[in-house]
C-alpha cells in the first residue's frame, strides 16, 4: 500500500540518549518534512528536504538533525534527547515543494523523554 | 500575533446542524490555503484546498477573504463522523513549501 511509514509507533527514551525516528515513503515524492505536534501549539516544522541530497531548517530545528540520502528515506535524529522533546512527531511528504502540493502524513511517532 | 489563528473550540453541535469555522492569517502575501482534518490520535489528512473563488465539496464549503485575511469552512447537515479537529493551513511563501498550521478547532457532533 502506497504511503508513508514511520517507526517506531511510540517510544519511551531516557534523557541524554540518542534516537533516530525513521520515515519511508514509496510515492516517489520529492519533498519530505518532519513536524512535531504539541498541545496548544499545533504542528511545527522541524526540518525539511525539497529533494534528495538537500535539507533545510524549519521553525524548531535545535536538537534535531536529518539526512536525505535518497528519495524514499528521511530519518530524524535526536542526538541527546531532552524532556522538552516529548511530543508526537509526524513525517510528511509532498510531490514537490510548490505552494499547491498537499502534504501526506505518516501515522506519527509518540516520543516520551524521561 | 500568531501567523495563523483559529478558535480552538470545542464546538459541540447536534447532528444535522450547520457549523462554521473561521481562521485568520497575518501575512497578506500568503499564497495558498488548506483545511486539514485530524482525528484523535491520528495523522492530519487534507480535507480541501481553498480557492479564491470559494469551493464546495459535498457538504463542505471553503471560502477565502483576502481583504480581511481569513478563510472559512462551512459544514452542512453535520454527521457524527465529522467529529474531528480541523486544521487551517496557510502557505506563506510562493514557490517554497512553508506551511504554517493553526492549532486546530475541535468539533464534536452529538447524536
Label this structure with key terms.
heterodimer; A: 114 residues; seven-stranded mixed sheet; 11 strands; 47% strand; B: 111 residues; six-stranded mixed sheet; five-stranded antiparallel sheet; 0% helix
What average pLDDT do the residues of chain B reach?
91
Radius of gyration of chain B: 13 Å
Shape of chain B: globular
Helix share of residues of chain A?
Answer: under 10%
| Topology pattern of chain B, helix = H, strand = E | EEEEEEEEEEE
| Global structural class of chain A | mainly beta
Strand content of chain A: over 45%
Q: What kind of oligomer do you see?
A: heterodimer
Detailed description of the structure:
The complex is a heterodimer of chains A (114) and B (111). Chain A contains no helices and eleven strands. Chain A is mainly β and 114 residues long. In chain A, strands 2, 4, 5, 6, 9, 10 and 11 form a seven-stranded mixed sheet that branches. In chain A, a hairpin with a 6-residue loop joins strand 5 and strand 6. The mean pLDDT of chain A is 93. Chain B is 0% helix and 54% strand. Chain B has no helices and eleven strands. In chain B, strands 2, 4, 5, 9, 10 and 11 form a six-stranded mixed sheet that branches. In chain B, strands 1-3-8-7-6 form a five-stranded antiparallel sheet, with no helix packed on it. The mean pLDDT of chain B is 91. Chain A binds chain B through residues 31, 33, 35, 40-45, 48, 50, 90, 94, 97-108, and chain B through 8, 31-32, 34, 36, 42-46, 49, 87, 91, 93-99, 101-104.
Amino acid at each position: 500500500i502506497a504511503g508513508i511509514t514511520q517507526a517506531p509507533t511510540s517510544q519511551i527514551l531516557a534523557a541524554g540518549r540518542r534516537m533516530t525516528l525513521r520515515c519511508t515513503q514509496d510515492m516517489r515524492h520529492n519533498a519530505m518534512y518532519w513536524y512535531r505536534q504539541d498541545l496548544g501549539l499545533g504542528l511545527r516544522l522541524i526540518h525539511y528536504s525539497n529533494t534528495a541530497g538537500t535539507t533545510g531548517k524549519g521553525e524548531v530545528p535545535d536538537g534535531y538533525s536529518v539526512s536525505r540520502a535518497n528519495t524514499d528515506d528521511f530519518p530524524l535524529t535526536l542526538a541527546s534527547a531532552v524532556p522538552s522533546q516529548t511530543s508526537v512527531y509526524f513525517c510528511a511528504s509532498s510531490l514537490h515543494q510548490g505552494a499547491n502540493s498537499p502534504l501526506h502524513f505518516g501515522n506519527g511517532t509518540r516520543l516520551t523523554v524521561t | 500575533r500568531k501567523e495563523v489563528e483559529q478558535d480552538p473550540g470545542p464546538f459541540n453541535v447536534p447532528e444535522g446542524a450547520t457549523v462554521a469555522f473561521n481562521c485568520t492569517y497575518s501575512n497578506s502575501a500568503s499564497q495558498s490555503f488548506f483545511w486539514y482534518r485530524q482525528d484523535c490520535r491520528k495523522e492530519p489528512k487534507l480535507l480541501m484546498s481553498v480557492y479564491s473563488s470559494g469551493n464546495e465539496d459535498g457538504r463542505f464549503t471553503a471560502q477565502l477573504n483576502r481583504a480581511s485575511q481569513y478563510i472559512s469552512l462551512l459544514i452542512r447537515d453535520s454527521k457524527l463522523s465529522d467529529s474531528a479537529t480541523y486544521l487551517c493551513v496557510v502557505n506563506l511563501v510562493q514557490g517554497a513549501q512553508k506551511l504554517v498550521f493553526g492549532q486546530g478547532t475541535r468539533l464534536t457532533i452529538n447524536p
